[in-house]
Design a protein that fits this description.
CATH superfamily of the largest domain: Zn peptidases
CATH class of the largest domain: Alpha Beta
Order of helices and strands: HEHEEHEHEEEHHEHHEEEEHEHEHHHH
Number of domains: 2
CATH topology of the largest domain: Aminopeptidase
Low-confidence stretches: 1-43
Distance between the termini: 35 Å
CATH architecture of the largest domain: 3-Layer(aba) Sandwich
Mean pLDDT: 91
Strand content: 15-25%
Bound molecules: N~2~-sulfamoyl-L-arginine, zinc ion
Number of strands: 14
Structural class: alpha/beta
Shape: globular
């Protein structure tokens, strides 16, 4: 088992505690956009703090920590950084871990007044849900012959979850390989929405001008789902200050806890292996049942709807997260490279394309369980049930040092989104036959 490279990866930060009037304001601001849901119940937004925990240096040791329900935000050679609430922190201390609290998220207000429901003034380059929607609509108006949008369902609070299709003759369902790009399962990972918007701009502007883009638009159907967790994203910025929120905004049954970790709620090996938490309120709460969160159900239904005449049309995909600068592939539920449903050749093709993409963006390629075990994740689901070669990218920064953790300044958006241009094109180019990458096209892709 390979150890992760030293000194890299994720974090987050301490959620700002609101009190008194500020808390009331926050609750009001977090109100849903339709009549369906009610104002978030009190107690549903307990704060998390980020802690550094020295000691763990193997995937198994990190999994023991993850199993307490904290999210592991950063993996170092002999330490992890986690997000934990007071209960989880106590549990970890009882288990004998030493926790060192780290500073919270940056305020990025530039001395200006925070504006509700918006990014802090210094981060205005990021898009709120409304701004994202406006930009998507603008692109579709600009490039109507190659882009179309459909609403594939609604979030818990009633926001539209959309899929944008990019292809020539966009209104026709052609018999060509399809690729699914998904973004923003985790609320605080706002850079991923910018990644989706970048791709819309790039494919629109490049069509007819750039040979690789033109070839892919003509020979693929590209599905972009830019925002899987709109409620969480809006909640994270609702007070004008970052809250380090991870999950969606669905109350957990009758309890006061709010939020399911969408990337533990997919219907494959759900809750199987200590890679998620069954405790309401934890950072990696897996939900009451697979697909119990509307957002996961909407996107899973969409993926299943692409099975035509018994054949899944979607061949490959990337699910974008932050941070850590990683290119990962399944399985997350087991440390083994192969398992029932994932052969040596499947693994080799995953690793070969993963390595090529990582060589172009400078990320580290690895099997996702090299970090820690996860179950009920999107990539395990899409491979395990649909045989879609789905990867997980963890974008910038590599570690929490200078990069801003989950909240890098908006000036990095252009650089860090265009950094993945080549990797996305490579996935598209390989998607018609992923096994070509290991010299086995004739065995697996006859006729294609
Ligand atoms: O824990 C997660 O869901 C991902 N990390 S994050 O910091 N963005 O929350 C990593 C998932 C790795 N496992 C799989 N991709 N299966
Ligand atoms: Zn994530």
């Amino acid at each position: 088992m390979r150890l992760p490279r030293e000194g890299r990866r994720r974090t987050h930060a301490r959620t700002t505690r609101t009190a008194g009037l500020a808390a009331l304001l926050a609750l009001a601001l977090a109100a849903p956009v339709t009549a369906r849901a009610t104002v978030s119940p009190p107690g549903g937004d307990e704060t998390t703090t980020q802690y550094e925990i020295p000691g763990p240096s193997t995937p198994a040791a990190r999994t023991v920590i993850a199993a307490t329900g904290v999210s592991i935000d950063e993996v170092r050679e002999h330490a992890v950084v986690v997000s934990a609430d007071a209960t989880e922190a106590k549990r970890l201390r009882t288990l004998g871990y030493k926790l060192k609290a780290l500073p919270g998220p940056p305020s990025r207000t530039n001395g200006l007044k925070a504006k509700p429901f918006d990014f802090p003034p210094a981060d205005s380059g990021y898009h709120t849900y409304a701004e994202m929607t406006a930009e998507i609509d603008q692109r579709i108006a600009q490039y109507p012959s190659i882009m179309s949008k459909r609403v594939i369902g609604k979030s818990y609070e009633g926001r539209d979850i959309v899929a944008i299709k990019i292809s020539d003759n966009v209104t026709t369902d052609k018999d060509v390989p399809e690729v699914l790009l998904t973004f923003h399962q985790h609320a605080r990972e706002h850079l991923t929405v910018e990644m989706a918007l970048y791709l819309l701009r790039e494919f629109g502007a490049g069509y007819g001008k750039d040979a690789r883009i033109t070839a892919m638009v003509n020979s693929r159907e590209i599905w972009i789902v830019p925002d899987l967790n709109p409620d969480g994203g809006e909640y994270d910025i609702a007070t004008g200050r970052y809250r380090s929120w991870r999950k969606n905004r669905q109350p957990s049954g009758s309890s006061l806890s709010v939020g399911t970790d969408l990337n533990r709620n997919w219907n494959y090996k759900w809750g199987c292996c200590g890679g998620s938490s069954g405790s309401k309120g934890t950072e990696t709460y897996r939900g009451s049942a697979p697909e119990s969160s509307p957002e996961v159900k909407v996107v899973a239904d969409f993926a299943r709807s692409r099975v035509i005449n018994g054949k899944q049309q979607i061949k490959a995909g990337i699910d974008f997260h932050t941070y850590g600068e990683l290119v990962m592939w399944p399985f997350g539920w087991t440390y083994n490279a192969t398992a029932p449903g994932l052969t040596q050749d499947d693994h080799a093709a995953y690793a070969a394309v993963g390595a090529k993409m990582a060589a172009s963006n400078g990320y580290t390629p690895e099997q996702s369980s090299d970090l820690y075990l996860t179950d009920g994740t999107i990539d395990d689901y899409l491979w395990g049930t649909q045989k879609i070669f789905d990867f997980t990218f963890e974008m910038y920064p590599g570690d929490s040092g200078a990069g801003g953790g989950f909240y890098p300044p908006d000036k990095v958006i252009d650089r860090e989104t265009s950094r993945n241009r080549d990797a996305v094109l490579q996935l598209l180019e390989n998607s018609d036959c992923m096994y070509r990458s290991i010299g086995k096209a004739s065995r697996y892709c006859a006729g294609s």
